Amino acid sequence: MVVFAGQGDFRRSLALLWRTPGAAVARSGPGPRPGLTVDTVVDAGIAIADASGISAVSMREVGKRVGRTGMALYTYVPSKDELVDLMYDRALAELPTAYDLTDGWRAALSVWTHDYWAFCLRHPWTLQVSQARPVLGPNENAMLESVLRILFATGLGAQVLRRVVGTLINHVRGAAQTVIDSRQAAAATGVSDEDWWTARSAAFEEVVPDFAERFPTVVRLAKEAATAPPDPEGPYLEREATETFDAGLAVLLDGIEALVRRGAQDAPQARVV
What positions does the domain HTH tetR-type occupy (predicted)? Predict the structure, then answer.
């Protein structure tokens, strides 16, 4: 299930995101009972999504959680569309907004990336909010601001950094999605990663006995990069995704560092010309 931001009344959604005065929906008749705010409603939506996924979020379910009817929530949030925007942006407020550059941009960027990775695993439903349509909220922009402060310390140009930011975010979200899929697959099917692979490996050898001859490079990789024995404390695929995340991050950081060094080497030549 992919959710696209900005599907509701975008002006009202932006007003709620940025807390513009008077952003709440006008109400006729008796006022709402005290003790409920937009943030209370949004926090309830986040709690439901964390526990049961974004598909479980509805105005009715959120109303139950806060002790109101679903209809009563429309005083605070116009519809589920705006609610999802608010949930996503409010969840992002958990991320730090300042990173220490004392040890250089690479150390700071590594911390930022691991913080974002941990955030995605805490709130797996946020990966269902498509990056194709940004929410445009304050915390989404604060997240971008924090990583850009780190990256601009590299001295690289804006055009390069724009692509670097996208690559880093895609790397984190992609690896985190694999971890989440692994957890959901085991829960949905009742079969662990290890049992799934064990059952299919034996059958695969019978069905495709000439696999090694047909795909020798695939077999070479499997043999030379043999994985550790199954970890009783963690599923196989989740462990693989975590190690892939760490290895991929190291490659990305090395690549950025190479760009920085190349830029430094090219700079004197540019001045001479």
Answer: 35-95
